[in-house]
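Our preliminary data section would be incomplete without showing what the modeling component actually yields. Below, a chain of 316 amino acids is followed by its predicted structure, encoded as tokens that our downstream tools consume directly.
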Amino acid sequence: MHLDLSAKRILVTGGAGFLGSYIVERLAREGAQEIAAPRRKDYDLTRAEAVERLFGEYRPQVAIHAAAMVGGIGANRGNPGRFFYENAIMGIQVVEACRRYGVEKTVVLGTICSYPKFTPVPFREEDLWEGYPEETNAPYGIAKKALLVQCQAYREQYGMNAVFLLPVNLYGPRDNFDPHSSHVIPALIRKCMLAVRQGAGEIVLWGDGSPTREFLYVEDAAEGIVRATQRYNGAAPVNLGSGVEISIRELARKIAELTGFGGRIVWDTSQPNGQPRRSLDVSRAERELGFRASTGLEEGLRATIAWYRRAGLEKL
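Predicted structure:
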């Protein structure tokens, strides 16, 4: 079945954030007329009364739960309790509200951080429960994975159409470039651009550069999420990724080249590497959603760096 979004009242939690803003734009291109994208200052989803007020006011027919507290290794390591609590409580309360308010379709976004630390590559959805996540982001990953259990339990008991997606590491224009909480691509772009501006001869990066990652351009991610909203009604989780694996060392070299940084890259091996490898099996998304990422990594990096320059962030 193909869900016609044009006549639905759609709630996108986190809709004013990085990924959420692209989801809202994609929904509008698909013809959606009524889209609510509440901000945290107005509706703090960690508070039950705010969730109740949100659903009472908007009465959504479709909900996409994209709100999350996110960050890189340092942010996760420094705030494990907060990352667990806020992500778990937001999701649990939003999914429960979707049940109580009779939402027709609920789409919950999980995270690749939910996979076990030593998952065989490429990660298949069936491997999700085969071990404990990488320690530095396990609280975040487990909080998100609990929402998959909730979606499946509510489907079984209440007949709720709740689906769960597992996006890989995202990047693109409008990303978070805060040095204290950013993910690897914006962090690398900022470091390289700052070094160029200051004439620095080297930059220092965490770990040894050996871990691998897979990245999905944010516009592609939004397309996959909206396709799932329209087309997917299954209980099984679905990976969303590009299917392309790259080492952090090679990624750093590529970003240095694209930003014009010609200095030395120094690896601080006293800092953690994070999960050894990350790369997804994306065959279920291709089969069930007809989704395949269309933006190559270099193309996406160039667009992200160009936006960073336009936004004047390299001067901060």
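The radius of gyration is 19 Å. The chain is about 40% helix and 15% strand. Preliminary results of this kind motivate Aim 1 of the renewal.
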